[in-house]
Amino acid sequence: MVCGMRVLDECCCICILICCMCIPRVSCDLMRCETTRKNPNHRRSAAASLIQGVYSQEHDRQLNRQGHQAIAPHWWDFFNFRLFDVLVDNADRSIFGAIYEFKSLPPYGHHYPLHSPTRYVVAFRGKMTGWETMSQALTLDLKVIRNTLEQSPLFQHAMQAVQHTVSIAGAANMCLAGHSLGSAMALLAGKNMATMCYVTIALKALNQRPQTGDWFATLSGWIPYLFVNPSDPISAEYVGYFEHRDRMAAIEARAIERLSTRNSISGAIEPLHLLPSACLTINGSPVQGLRQAHGLDQWWKPNIQCRSKLQLISN
Predict the structure, then answer these.
(1) Spatial CB neighbours of 76, under 8 Å, sequence gap ≥ 6
(2) Bridge partners of 23?
(3) End-to-end CA distance of the chain
(4) How many angstroms separate the CA atoms of 249 and 258, rounded?
């Protein structure tokens, strides 16, 4: 899971990737470093629950559960959000995403751990096992492997929804979140927002100006939150990538590491897991099998053994 953290004080894009869960930040309030340290469980639980709300909406649709029979609303009501809009796949009419709006601050006297909650969250689910959505999911998985997800009509639909939300709320008031395939969509949308100048990158403090087409410089100030389980093969790519960078830095090969990362993301098509910076949270709790390692439910459990590290590209 990715979640945008640190920097970008004026307008930012948070990206939360879960297993990988991703939160690309379009608002730092949900994922700010100080808040992250004080309320790690709340941050994880809120992001994972809103994503689960998308899964549950599709389950409700398939089973024709409506009104009081619907299960999905419980996932966002608990965190004081309301359903603002639903994102529907035109290919199979399935619900693949949702836009949530924070309703209001809780009544006086109720402890709310985030002093300034993000107003809007755009969440994307991953692949589901039912036959109704499997064909489309496998097609999108193949596009992720080939790094051509951006060319899919579904992602273009998702990107339009993100841009529309930014237009009505401002980038500083929204956050992206996704799990599995949904995390790829959230991360790619966050990258696009960074390069399209919807996000104010904190390069002024570094006296840097990104050159045209320089993905490395443009993305270096953007810090998505990644929540990963090393036993999950998908998450392992992120873990291995940043561990390799740490090893290069340890042997004082920073110049090679920096050049390698820059070249890796400077092409026309760059793998999603290659990021200049990120806040990487790893779940070290024991798991039984790949299904559990990839599952979304691990991220709302309060007693998991997590360790986090801020990964910044060397200057």
Answers:
(1) 49, 50, 53, 82, 83, 100
(2) 15, 16
(3) 26
(4) 9
Residue 284 and residue 306: Cα distance in Å, rounded?
Answer: 6
pTM of full prediction above 0.85 = no
Read off the tokens for 107. Answer: 């009544």
At 117, the pLDDT band (50, 70, 90 cuts) reads: low
pLDDT in tens, 187-214: 999 888 877 754 444 444 444 544 544 6
Per-residue pLDDT at 5 exceeds 50? no
Taking Cα atoms as reference points, which of 195, 204, 219, 209 lies closest to residue 276? 219
Q: Mean pLDDT across the stretch 174-187? A: 91
Distance between CA atoms of 244 and 259, rounded to whole angstroms?
14
List Cβ<8 Å contacts ≥24 apart for 196-205: 198/11, 198/13, 198/26, 198/163, 198/166, 198/171, 199/8, 199/11, 199/12, 199/13, 199/26, 199/171, 200/8, 200/9, 200/10, 200/11, 200/12, 200/171, 201/7, 201/8, 202/7, 202/8, 202/9
Q: HSE-up of 90 (CA within 13 Å, CB side)?
A: 7
CB 184 within 8 A of CB 272: yes
Task: Classify each residue of 90-108 as buried b or exposed e, where b means 16 or more C-beta atoms within 10 Å of its C-beta.
Answer: ebeebbbbbbbbbeeeeee
